[in-house]
Fold this sequence. Notes:
Elements: H1 20-37, H2 41-48, H3 55-66, H4 73-84, H5 101-104, H6 106-110, H7 114-123
Amino acid sequence: MAQNADAPTMPDTDAEGYTAEQRSMIERRRRMTDAMYGPGAYDRAIAKVKPHRCARHLDDIFEGARQAQFDVSGPLGNFLRCLWSSPGNEPPRLYPDSVPFNLSTPRAQWSQSPSAAATSDSSLGDSDGGSNAL
């Protein structure tokens, strides 16, 4: 969970945004994985993790819920069509300029100072090349 270096962290979290309990769970999982599959197995597995090809279509459902009309039926249908499609034949997104859900949650907004949020909103990259207008 990368954060702006100048942004304050939430109470009881480290620089990456994890609580002490979350950090201990991660370390326990790391030790268990390395013990079962050899040293460095956890790091190799984490390096291979990529978001699902329809993850941004799921973000469109949340964006539809945030709209004044609370329209989730169109984005939900589009997400299901994406899941049923073959790789490379995904339907076009309904809200291509939306901010990824994990960057638009109140926790992410709370962890940034107002000046940092204003500058970082314009610098957020979108995996499918869209601009991130709010």
